[in-house]
Specification:
alpha+beta, extended, 7 helices, single chain, 385 residues, 5-stranded mixed beta sheet, Immunoglobulin-like
Length: 385
């Protein structure tokens, strides 16, 4: 038993010895394969001057390769974006909500007509009918209660009264319908536009495209409460980029959406139009005074529906040209072929079609011919014996 244990111990020690020798040889080979350079040691020269011996030679590992040099030229810094001008500050008396129980002051022709219709026609009719019903209810309650009239009347009908309560509502509805229908027709009869703006609703911000002025786009987001205070904007109505239009110009609005239904509404313009995904809706306005006017999305569109303000800045034509130039747009250049940016749209004008391009001379008339011609092998030239 002891001899077996002795043999196992001897075998283990021999294995460890061989393993150590192999590791030492591997390290030596790695050291010998590393690159070396020969340098003169300054200390050897100093210790043996004039001894006739060469300076001591010391082998040192080569320094790692230098990092690649930086490019000689750096890319030029991009030019700073032009500052977008904002010409007018908010005016609490116009273009925003107030504490008054009334419509906002109107600044468009349609708005003036609607204000007249509301104040001069609707409100008097509503007040008169309300007072009449109140008086009738009071008179019936007092005159015909059980104590004042113990023996009730057995009258079942009255021809005169029945004619009155039939004809009177018809006349009232006609008085309301005629101006109402005229106003609705004017809202949807868009005159020749001086400018077209495409309004796109997103969750939860707006973007405005100007196809008549180079087709650039302005993205408008709500400001924070601190930014509103710093800029003097109404709470939750200030935006970073405003929609800008010229004064006394017919502005055609094309609304759409890229997610859910929104609604573009500016009360001072008497304008409200839904923005529906996959559909183009149209409306218009013509503002008669410069200034800053606010609106909001008027269609429930998600969690941040209440944080989609609209700010429209109405400026002079010179200021509008300055704003267009600052946004990289054009004035009088690159306009669409028609005066209406959507006249050739298949949505607003279904009869409009796009002409097919004329094929070049010698080109195949159909793609099939083109494929056939390209696939046809070339015949080899005949040879004579």
């Amino acid at each position: 038993m002891k001899s077996v244990k002795t043999m196992l111990i001897a075998t283990g020690l021999a294995t460890l010895t061989l393993t150590g020798s192999a590791s030492a040889q591997t390290a030596a080979q790695a050291a010998s394969s590393a690159p070396f350079i020969v340098t003169t040691s300054p200390s050897a020269t100093a210790t043996a001057p004039g001894s006739g011996q060469s300076p001591a030679v010391v082998a040192t590992p080569a320094a790692p390769a230098a990092a690649p040099a930086a490019p000689a030229t750096q890319p030029a810094a991009t030019a700073a974006k032009a500052t977008i001008p904002q010409f007018y500050q908010s005016d609490p008396s116009v273009g925003q909500p107030s504490d008054k129980i009334a419509l906002q002051p109107q600044v468009t022709e349609l708005g003036h007509r609607a204000e007249f219709f509301h104040n001069i026609i609707l409100m008097p009719i509503i007040i008169i009918i309300s007072l009449l019903v109140l008086v009738l209810l009071g008179w019936v309650s007092i005159r015909y209660n059980r104590r004042a009239n113990p023996v009730p009347s057995r009258t079942s009908h009255n021809t005169t009264i029945e004619i009155i309560w039939t004809v009177a509502p018809v006349l009232i509805l006609l008085a309301i319908a005629v101006p109402s229908i005229k106003l609705l027709a004017a809202q949807y009869s868009i005159p020749k536009p001086d400018l077209t703006v495409k309004v796109i609703g997103h969750q939860w911000y707006w973007s405005y495209q100007y196809p008549d002025n180079g087709d650039f786009e302005v993205v408008s987001n709500i400001l924070t409460e601190d930014q509103d205070k710093a800029k003097g904007e109404p709470r939750q109505l200030g935006v970073d980029n405003r929609m800008v239009v010229p004064v006394n110009s017919v502005i055609k609005i094309i609304t759409t959406s890229d997610d859910v239904i929104h609604s573009f509404a500016v009360p001072a313009f008497w304008t409200k139009m839904d923005a529906v995904p996959g559909r183009l809706n149209e409306t218009w306005f013509k503002v008669d005074r410069v200034g800053l006017y606010y609106g909001q999305c008027s269609e429930l569109c998600g969690a941040r529906h209440g944080y989609m303000p609209i700010a429209v800045e109405v400026v002079t034509r010179d200021q509008f040209a300055q704003w267009i130039a600052a946004n990289g747009g054009t004035i009088g250049h690159g306009k669409p072929a028609s005066s209406d940016a959507t006249a050739n749209s298949p949505i607003s004008n279904p009869s409009a079609t796009t002409a097919s391009p004329t094929p070049m001379a010698g080109a195949p008339s159909t793609p099939t011919e083109n494929v056939t011609a390209s696939a046809k092998p070339v015949a080899a030239p005949a040879t004579t014996n």
